[in-house]
Task: structure prediction
Amino acid sequence: MKKCLYPLVMLAMVLCGVQLSDAKPEVKPRVFVNPGHGGEDSNDRPCPFYCYGVGDTIPYFESISNWYKGNALVDILQRKGYETAISRVNNTTLDDLDLFEIMSLAANSGADLFFAIHSNATGIQKQMNAPLALYRGFTGEPAVEGNDVIAQLMMDALGGSGATQWSSKPEISGDWTFYDWGYKVGLGVLRYNKLPGMLCEGSFHDYIGERCRLESPDYCWLEAWNQSCAMDKYFNHKPKIQLGCIAGLLRSSETSPYLADGYQLYGDDNKRGKNGCELELFDAEKKLVATYVTDNHDNGFYLFKNLKPGLYYLYYAGHYHEVTVEANKVAYLSFQDFDSVNHPPMKQIKPKKPE
Ligand SMILES: [Zn+2]
Result:
């Protein structure tokens, strides 16, 4: 009897206008995120320094900024419609998994992409600041298809940041070429990895200007945002959220005190970042959207994130600066000594503050 019913059901569906859909279920790209190191131990790249803004010596651990970036990246990717897995959500010694364990977790996660987050150090007196992408294989001959593609997209995204001071251009290399550790040895975390992926040295934390910025969780968030934009391109993924950001650096006319301490500083980093400085953001209707106060780590970094595309006015130092936000992009506006340095001519308006 059952057999005879089936064509009748089909006929009923057609008559009722119900179409059998051949749409495939949504396939979300899946990313495995590995924030490098874990805890505050001697192998977590401690770089304590005297911070003039704080007026004391403060710690820096690479494990902490990697942790900020990794958790931010997972949050952003999920909101953009990705599936994610992460090797650690905390920053304790126990979270510092061994490399084989990380590789096993990545393999078992069913991820399409492996992404290890780090920052770099020269290890020598000379300091520099640029991102570096390392992938398994020889340079130009990736061991897994796609390694070099994500590496290039990632360096384009991070190297395009206008909220830092680069000393040089991004670098991309296969780890077998980069490290002289023996034939096809390379990085431990990539050694057994069969997934496309890379290790991202987002910047140099032993460059003092960058170390001051990496103290800011928001600065780390911005790097994660830029990483996510590179992944959107890699997967040709249209993000579920269509939002943008405004970010930049506020600097005074005062020479950076770190110069007198013998640190090397590039470009505008030789001017001190402005601490505890407030900016206000107004929308096109001239309603206050958000305020941001820079921290005390001499970085002058500010960020307005998760903004709907459109026209905004940034109020800083007595002036309103017009800025257009585009989805999946960052509008960079930096200011030095109350003068605009890299944005279109200032347009004076009179926004009204909400009652
Ligand atoms: Zn590292």
Notes: Confidence is low (pLDDT under 50) at residues 1-18, 340-349.
